[in-house]
Amino acid sequence: MLDFIARRLIAIIPVLAVVAVFVFLMLRLTPGDPAAVIAGDNATSDQIAMIREKLGLTLPIWQQFAIWMGDILQGNFGESYFFKKTVAELIAQRVEPTLALAICTMVLALSVALPLGVIAAYKQGSFLDRFVMGVSVLGFSVPSFVIGYCLIYVFAIELGWVPVQGYTRIGVDFGGFIEHMILPSITLGIIYVALVARITRASVLEVLNEDYIRTARAKGLSNRVVLMRHALRNAAVPILTVIGIGVALLIGGAVVTESVFGLPGLGRLTVEAVLSRDFPTIQTVILLFSVVYVVVNLLIDISYTLFDPRIRY
Amino acid sequence: MSVAQQPVLEVRNLSVSLPKGGDRAHAVEKVSFTVNPGEIVCLVGESGSGKSVIAFTVMGLLAKALKPTSGEILLQGENILAASEARLRELRCTRMSMIFQEPMTALNPVMTCGEQIDEVLKTHTKLDTAARKAKIIAILTRVKLPEPERVYASFPHQLSGGQRQRIMIAMALVLDPVLLIADEPTTALDVTTQAEILKLIAELQAGQGTGVLFITHDFGVVAEIAHRVAVLRWGELVEMGPMEQILSRPSQPYTKMLISSVPSIHPVHRGVRLEGVTVLRTDKLGKTYSGKSFFQKARTVKAAVDVDLDIRRGETLGIVGESGSGKSTVARCIARLIDPTEGKVYLGDTEIATMSARKLRPHRRRVQIVFQDPYRSMNPRITVGESIIEGPMNFGLQRDEAIARARKLMETVRLDPNALDRYPHQFSGGQRQRICIARALAMEPELLIADEAVSALDVSVQKQVLQLLDEIRVRLNLAVLFITHDLRVAAQICDYVAVMSKGRVVEYGSAEQVFGSPKDPYTQALFAAAPGRNWDFGKAGAA
Question: Which of A2, A219, A233 has its CB closest to that of B295?
Fold first, then answer.
């Protein structure tokens, strides 16, 4: 087990190194000059040149990369060109809404998707099964900003049940926090529900054909016990895998959802940073997302052992 | 009629219909029989005879596509076919229980064995935790599992196949049901384990007066355990009677044919060994598997150790052993499907054990394998003709020549040459195995390896395929390496036999010598465990 975790942690290093190189190059190779953005519309070309000098943008690209990596390894993520703060501060301010959105989405999505998937598998071929699977196709194919705006129109504008946009910190007003979280979580969660419900259905269907399900029935257990205790737990590994992979969906979706609902989180920070060519911020956010993704998936791999005692690393 | 005399199970005129489009209208047609208290009734039949369908109908666990259309199933007088789903659930495990063929898959892999038995007690009794635990430990002791406390907390994968089947039996019998249905409970087990499990079932059953409906395809097992036997074919009851009578004086031609197809355990006299060309020789062949680990010491498993064998042209060498004995490992090393870690393999004069993959390629043709499961060893998406000609064409034969050869081979294995453009699913298991043999022969090999090639086949089909293999060996003067766990099959087809245990060859000699007077204690134990060894089926059926 320790052996496995150690190996996996070591394997993270090259992954992040590759991410770092890509992030760095991609941003440098895109057109647009951050110095010009910082200097503003009325700056002279001399002023811009000075800023470029100060930011180190005149150095050869590999030197820029080396300096940047060196700083990051020391925990110094640089200063935002645009927000005039250190990136670390900036991220600390913006992390709560994103984290809250991710967790709410996850909880909401799983509590809907798992039962739906199990029921669809149990009633395979029935109207319910086809309905659930049909809706999940819809969930996949309708973009989340469309869903977001529809939800805002119906529940915030027409019915007035929840606020249109904005965010209340969880520590300030819990009720307000929940009100602000409901629509974004649904918006972001729909694709996740579609994904997890489908994979749950598929893996439970497979497990239902196993001999031990027959044994469980032969014991005189009720259908509910057979499904929840025997089938779902055995189907857990592929479901967990997809939940892990789906974290990437959450990260991508957060960018759009936060913009639609005006949540001051990391997703919107990314958009703002990209629009203003704020290299240090963009790089750090992407690196952060990569670390989160890799770590979540490592945790999921470790959690397999909780569900299946045969898996030993 | 008092309860003691009343049959435990009475099946009256039972018919179960198959869904439309099946090969026949009924899975089971007008079958009637009874099981009395304390009696073991064997349902015998080949695949598709409907024996398992009957078992599942009794338990109410029939697949949705199958429907009982007529008749009654009386469990102590109560008609199960009329019972509600809730009533059926109540009866399961309390009055009727079932154990299954595959102890490897019949237990839930993610729950401990104790929890799984506990579920039965929780569902059907009002006992408290301590009482339940005590009852479970008691039944685990009764099925003779060592260290019941440890077994209680073990997951299925931590136990052997035989132990898992004991868990299944414990689970089935913990509430003392009046009827136990055993669906091929020993088929997946090694012969020595099988003997122990059969003994256990007989003991427990006699002790509690349980009626047992025992489903099997193996007449050896029937001879070992049955009081009465019912023979089924295509869903119909062919004949029924006391075990002695059915095995020694069957009245129906089908039963006679079945019993005469069971290979005799006495080896065929092959005459003196002729001087022949040695096709294959192994010298201290060994295979060690090792797992690598960062922090812990690497684990090594010696799958084969110091194996010395030789096969001459026109001879069949059998490797006999239980699962994990290393017999398949040896076969795979010889074919270089896996790389041996020690020793040498001489194919003719060529040493192939250490040869590089590139140099080995031309020699691949010379050794061909037929595998156990004809359902999985053929690519389902290409026609059998394509499967057969693929190898020869790979070695440079023109397509039309290869097809001509394939047509000839189809005749050799007694199939219609015009069937070459069909797909594997259009053939039965026995036919597929013939195609696999044709595919191997298409390469014109010097050595044919048959790895449990007849184990998945029904006994009547098995007999035909064995005859075919023997015929081909004689006609083509082929060397054959025959891997099997079945002593009867080995006795009928092998000139020489190597008995393997734990990776080593413990006894090696002519079939007559090994079967006639085994010297090694392991071989002796193996023979002593063979079910029905006191019945000479081949002769009894023919007489």
Answer: A2
Residues of B in contact with A217 (CB under 8 A): 61, 92
| Interface membership of A6 toward B (CB under 8 Å) | yes
Average pLDDT over residues B506-523: 91
Q: How far is CA B169 from CA B189, B213, B426, in A?
A: 14, 14, 38
| Mean confidence (pLDDT) of chain B | 89
CA B411 remoteness from chain centre: 29
Read off the pLDDT of each residue in B249-272 and give the average, rounded to a whole number. Answer: 85
CB-based contact (8 Å) between B182 and chain A? Answer: no
* Mutate: best of A126, A212, A213, A312, partner B, most B CBs <10 A: A212
Which class is domain A87-307? mainly alpha
Number of H helices, E strands in chain B: 20, 20
The string of pLDDT tens digits covering residues B103-137 is 888 999 999 999 999 999 999 999 999 999 999 99
Cβ <8 Å between B105 and A216: no
Q: What kind and span of H or E run contains B441? A: helix B429-441
For chain A, which residues make up each domain, given as ranges? 87-307
Q: What's the whole-model pTM score?
A: 0.81
Tens-place pLDDT, residues B440-454: 999 999 999 999 888
Distance from the A217 Cα atom to the nearest Cα atom in chain B, whole angstroms: 8
How many Å apart are CA A250 and CA B96, to the nearest integer? 51
What does the buried/exposed string (b/e) look like for B204-235 if buried means 16 or more CB atoms within 10 Å of the residue's CB? bbeebebbbbbbbbbbbbbbbbbbbbbbbbbb
Q: Does B94 touch chain A (CB under 8 A)?
A: yes
- Checking if the pLDDT of B224 tops 70, the result is yes
A234 touches chain B (CB under 8 A): yes
- Check residue B297 and give its pLDDT: 61
| Minimum distance, in Å, between the CA of residue B161 and any CA atom of chain A | 15
List, as one string, the DSSP characters of B90-150: HHBTTTEEEE-S-TTTSS-TTS-HHHHHHHHHHHH----HHHHHHHHHHHHHHTT-SSHHH
Residue B115 near chain A (CB below 8 Å):
no
Report which of B111, B325, B380 is spatially closest to residue A216, judged by C-alpha positions. Answer: B111
Residues 245-304 of chain B whose Cβ lies under 8 A from any Cβ of chain A: 293-296
pLDDT, tens digit (0-9, with 9 covering 90-100), for A139-155: 888 888 888 889 989 99
DSSP secondary structure string, B485-518?
S-HHHHHHH-SEEEEEETTEEEEEEEHHHHHHS-
**Nearest partner of B10 among B70, B88, B77, judged by Cα:** B77
CB-nearest to B105 from A6, A210, A309 is A210
Sheet holding B504-510, edge to edge: B367-370, B447-451, B479-484, B316-321, B496-501, B504-510
Using a CB-CB cut-off of 8 Å, the residues of chain A touching B294 are 3, 6-7
